[in-house]
Design a protein that fits this description.
The protein is mainly alpha-helical. The chain has 16 helices and no strands.
Length: about 325
């Protein structure tokens, strides 16, 4: 018996009857030999971790564009916080931690530079629409490894696709990540907003703090405990009605006071204009795209979609660099001019 088979046997013996076992995967789009050490979801986790798309997350905006300080979240630090929250819940509920971690690490691979501002503008100007969850799946299925994709299991791709509020994953592990994502970004965004001095802890409505906790640590602790307590022994991942309502109200509060705050979002107009101009520039100068993307055009891929692939894959700094290259006179690009 291989090490992988021993681990799979341990899953059968120790995980919840509602967990997704590695041996029960719906499989990959392309069959491939099994690893003798790692079950399928662990392999998926490793493939995502070693991908170029994952590495680029460290230089993509979470909420605050080009923040003045090293302690603000990036898309990568957010992803790691989601993963940690999800693994804590999964371990307590005896769910498949490998599947949870793979989904968590891959859920935001398709995010654009400049956070949701970039997603908004690409969705607006490209007639086919752009959603970061769908782009994340496109990356792991087609764009990574020069068009070969990562060939991930169906369960991981399903969790990545359905991690947003309006959709429901087919596995409990996917549902854990879906809630962990909300928990992570609400708490971390409060922390970053306080650091940016656009929000004080006391600004949060008192009733919400009484329910969820009076600081980020207490809120995180309450939310995770609530999910575990109310999901234990159930074929679902849920919160208590009181906590779920308070979390919804806290998200609404954040949209009003942070996500739409002119101080926090003052640079977003510039980012949107920049990406829109770059989109049209690449549409007119498609030859500037990397060869692997041009090859996709030759295979019948939509031109606008390929331009979105290129722009959405950029880090914040790379997008700024390319914008300067195309739209600013060379003399103006010298520092201090």
């Amino acid at each position: 018996m291989t090490i992988r088979e021993q681990i799979e046997q341990m899953e059968k013996e120790n995980l919840s009857p509602y967990a997704c076992l590695s041996v029960n995967t719906r499989g990959r789009d392309r069959d491939e030999p099994q690893c003798d050490i790692r079950p399928v979801f662990q392999r998926d986790r490793d493939r995502i971790l070693h991908s170029k798309s994952f590495r680029r997350l460290k230089n993509k905006t979470q909420v605050f564009l080009t923040p003045m300080g090293d302690h603000y979240r990036t898309r990568m630090s957010h992803t790691l916080e989601v993963s940690q929250n999800a693994r804590t819940i999964a371990k307590a509920l005896r769910m498949n931690e490998d599947l949870v971690e793979a989904i968590a690490l891959g859920h935001d691979l398709g995010h654009t530079p400049f956070g949701h501002a970039g997603e908004y503008i690409l969705n607006k100007i490209y007639e086919g629409g752009f959603k970061h969850n769908e782009q994340s799946v496109r990356i792991v299925e087609k764009l990574e490894k020069d068009g070969a994709g990562l060939n991930l299991t169906w369960e991981v791709r399903d969790g990545i696709l359905n991690h947003q509020t309006k959709t429901i994953p087919h596995t409990l592990e996917g549902k854990i990540v879906r809630l962990s994502d909300k928990i992570a970004y609400v708490n971390s965004d409060i922390d970053d907003a306080i650091r940016a001095q656009i929000l004080n802890e006391e600004d949060i409505p008192l009733e919400l703090r009484k329910t969820l906790g009076f600081d980020s640590k207490k809120r995180l602790n309450h939310l995770i405990h609530d999910i575990i307590t109310h999901s234990m022994g159930k074929d679902d991942i849920i919160m208590s009605d009181e906590t779920a309502e308070a979390l919804r109200d806290l998200r609404l509060f954040m949209f009003e006071h942070v996500y739409k705050n002119p101080v926090a979002k003052s640079e977003e107009v510039k980012a949107k204009v920049m990406l829109e101009q770059m989109y049209h520039y690449y549409m007119d100068h498609i030859e500037l795209l990397p060869g692997k993307l041009l090859n996709m055009l030759g295979e019948g891929e939509d031109k606008g979609r390929v331009v979105c692939d290129y722009i959405s894959g950029m880090t914040d700094q790379y997008a700024i660099t390319k914008f300067k290259e195309y739209f600013m006179p060379q003399a103006w690009q010298v520092d201090g001019y």
